[in-house]
From TrEMBL:
Substrate binds at G71. It comes from Mediterraneibacter faecis. InterPro entries: AcTrfase_PglD-like, Trans_hexapeptide_repeat, Trimer_LpxA-like_sf. This is Transferase. It comes from the Bacteria. Signal peptide: none annotated. The active site is at H140. Acetyl-CoA binds at I170. SUPFAM superfamilies: Trimeric LpxA-like enzymes. The record marks E141 as: Increases basicity of active site His.
Amino acid sequence: MKRKCVIFGTTDFGKMLRYYFEKYADVQIVAYTVDKAYLESDSYDGLPAVAYEEVEKAYPPTEYTMVIALGYKKMNQIRQQKFEDAKRKGYRIENFVHPSVVDESVAMGEGNIILEHVTLAYGTKIGNSNIIWNGSQISHESQVGDYNFFSVDSVIAGKTVVKNNCFLGINSTVLGNRTLEYATLVGAGAFVKENTEPYSVYVPARSICLENKKSTEMAYTR
C-alpha cells in the first residue's frame, strides 16, 4: 500500500515533486498545505489545500507523511523552520532519490530531495532536508549537514564537510578536504579552495571571499 502524503508548498516546485513522488516512489500525494496567510483556495493542482496551522486535524501524522517543497530563500532558513515544525507536529518527512542517482552513501536523514544524475559517492553522509539538483557530485567520504542547497552541476571533492544552510550555485566547485562553515554562499561558477567562515560569500572570477558581506544579505537569497 502506498504511503499517503501531504506536500507543504503551493508552488511549481510542489507540483514537480508531486510528479516525481507519484511516478517513482511508493507514495500517493493526497493534499497540499501552506501557511494560512498564503492559502488562496481550498484546492491546488486538483487536490485539497488546507491551512498548515490545521493540517494535523485533516491529515494526522499517524496516518500521513509530508514533503517540504521549499527552496533556498534566506539561506534555507525558511525550509529549516518548516521542517523542524513539521517534525514537532509528529510528521515523517519523505526523502526523494531519483532512480538515476548513483547512491553509495552510508547515511541519510529525512526530507532530502535528490534529483537526476546526482552522484553520492562512496562513504558519503547526508543529513536532513538537503536539496541536490541535477548532475551534482558529492565525492567520496564527504559529509553534508542539514538544510543545504546544491544547484545544478555543483561539485564538492572528496572528504569535504558542508555544514548547515549552505548554498552552492550552478557549476560551482569546492576543493577536497575543505570545510564549508554555516551559511556559506558559493556563487555560480565559483571555485573554493579554502576552508570558509560562517556567512561567507564566494563569487566567480578570482573566487575570493567578499569581506564585510554576509550570505544572508545577498538579494537572491532573501
